[in-house]
Amino acid sequence: MTIQFKPDETFREDFTYSNSDAAVLRFPFPFPEDVYMYSVNIEPHVPGGPTPAFDNPFDVDEHYVAECRERAKVLEQDPSRCKVLPHMMAAQWDTLELIMESFAASYPAHFTLTREGTNWTWENRPLGIRDSFVFGDASTLPLPPFEYITRQAQGDFTLQDQREDNLFVDGGMVTTQADWSMDFNVGMTFHQWHGPVPLAHEKGVFDRALKFLLRLQFGAPVRRLNWTMTVNPRLDTSPENYPQWGPDRTTLTADNIGAKLHLRVELQSLFRLPRSNAILFGIRCYLCSIEDLARVEVWGKRLHRVLRDLHPDIADYKGTTRYRDLAVAYLAAFDDGAALPSGT
Ligand code: HEM
How many domains does the chain have? Predict the structure, then answer.
């Protein structure tokens, strides 16, 4: 399959990002019910799902080239967005192998991996990269292996080391995050980095999720969806840059909210890695304006109901409180109140 990339899109300043009709239809809409509450919504990460976004281990779409360029810009301004602790070198190579093999198998028109023993050649045609290197010898790559490969993938990635019956976030490439900081979280445990999340701790969500992940098997990855909302199609909504994007919330009006307010969905995947026994966590971010989403009848109705009835603590945590009423009023026009089936 050949993907038509849109290399000139931007995710800042003039915000020229937009979704083609096909990209709207493949959006991983996250609400199977009219009401949303935190849960351990983990399922096997196998091909197939409500849209083609679920078909491959790592999804590549029309925004690929532009997103890689945006990542390079963030890293140029703030290299601390990529951080890996020294004991995670085996996990770095595991990640490089997994992403290269997956990309080459899923998108042979765009990526090729040639292996002769430990002599590997990687071709990434959309980004114009061709490198030969020795697998396991970091001096033969232009960048450390984790940074090298995650600069060539959409979405954020973190590396969890497993020890003491816990997971420690001991590395990550985090440039497209929903208001959390890799630099701040590095070295934390599963419950520590989830500390700020409301309601889920007392419901036992994190206890159950951690137990599940500690038993995650190599070759049997899992996935879940998470969501929030972002004003303008901005990928880098980091705490470090809050002064740049926080004030955007004050710019919404009844006239512009349909185009400016975006549902931000993370298709999160978790892979056990073979040499390091670490877990790779992929956070693949999708943005779609609520105006575009409402073109799909079921999605417009459902988003209206979810936002209208969202628990205030969750609405607040996701930073939507200031504009939620405006968004609900906009979406109400698409909702006739008819019952919807479960699923997306
Ligand atoms: C939120 C990281 C796995 C459920 C978060 C946050 C981070 C994070 C950094 C934001 C916390 C903040 O506000 O500072 C990770 C990492 C994971 C992981 C690195 C890899 C192991 C999971 C799993 C679940 C989960 C398996 C399953 C229940 C949640 C929920 C939120 C959250 C419900 C709140 C999201 C929201 O309302 O926007 N996670 N997480 N996480 N995480 Fe995880």
Answer: 1
